[in-house]
Design brief:
single chain; alpha+beta; OB fold (Dihydrolipoamide Acetyltransferase, E2P); 5 strands; 44% helix; 21% strand
Length: 182
Amino acid sequence: MIYKDLDEKIKPLEEQDYTKIKAEAEALIADANSGDAGDYAKYLLKDIQRCEVAKEAQDIVEGQKTELQQAITEAEKEHQEKLQNIPDIGKYAIMGTLKQSVIYEDQPTAEKRFLIVDDGNIPICYAEPVGEMADANLTEYYGQKVGLIGQISADNQSHLALVRFEKIEKLEAAAAENTEKK
């Protein structure tokens, strides 16, 4: 029996099977005439229990490794999705909330200017549509966070910069659209 126990211990944990050895040891313990062999069998059973606990611990650790790897994979996937949903802010001359300018609201359409404010409602610059945008109705953008594609210049009529833009994009709508694609 000693040799069987040693043979099992040298195997990798996942291959160890003490079922037969345990049965033999329990039979020796149950036999009142086993003497020293029964005493040895008691120690052997404790040793087998330690090996089985080690095997269970390894199974638990392997399961946790698998769960951790799955969690890491899922976190990386979510991270990549979030990276894809970040707007390309480098294409915008300015980003902010579009408001109708009180100062310029009575101007002719050709000279219409709007105000761009930050999240704290502090004016960043004036915005003037040019090209195809000059004739566009921009009321749907009022109060919306937008990105303007165009050129920044000094405004001779005010202390703020002026962005002459040929394209406007709703930033929150783009973020919501990317979220819906998931």
